[in-house]
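Raw record, unedited: Energy-coupling factor transporter ATP-binding protein EcfA2
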Amino acid sequence: MAFQLKGASVTIGDRQVLTEIDCMLESGRWISLIGRTGAGKSTLAKLLKGLVPDFKGEYWINGQPASRNRRGQMQVLPQVGFVFQYPEHQIFETTVYRELSFSLRMRGAGTEEIDKAISRVLPLVGLAEEMLPLSPLQLSGGQKRRIAIASVLISDPQLLILDEPTAALDPLSRRLLLDMLKNWQAEGKGLRSILSISHAMEDIAQYSDEVLVMNGGRLVGHLSANELFLHRSDLLEGSGLPLPDYIELLKLMEQLSGRPIQIDSCREEDVLAAVETVWQDRRNSYAE
């Protein structure tokens, strides 16, 4: 399922928040949305969910105009899931079961359908059925976050929007959560897309297929993660964004060796392997 904006502009009060945004989010892609604070990332994400009723421009889903009400205002899109920053703060039900079943109950689903959906989503987020009767207050912070994410995944959105999904998590918890989301996307067999707002550049380089770069309410770049981090770091510098540490190491090794390092992947393990090879060649040259 493709989600496309054409010339989308948003004004809030007397401030232009988004200006002439043109982008296409295609099925089966992990797309990161980056930019400094105030660049317009959250507004763009809310627009894609249908949470910005009035805007200039067009919004198309699979070649069809997105749903609007009789007054021409955007409506919330059920095929787009939205996980806000610190999603555990959004939990409000009395038990884990009621929290997970809430959206399905609101759609009129029966007990059998709800139970099947919960059984399907729990393994995806690494949680056991024994937790279902518990109060969310009894859970750890990490468990609460997984429950909150599961309550969105249970509706099987075609586009999942994540607003800083790893905020305040330690490195191991962050990696486990992102791997979980990557597995959920892969199980969709090319039909599920993720749009992730993040400031964690290492995570962006590691998990993204594509990156949207925003600056001052404008989309200044939409390119593959490999292209951005390996060849177009100027877009990051111009937007006040850093390179991942290991990409900085790659650049330093290129300076020391006096030649570019040929690599087509910005993933950490691939970059470090290339750097190690050049470093070993450099050490061997000293020994000769």
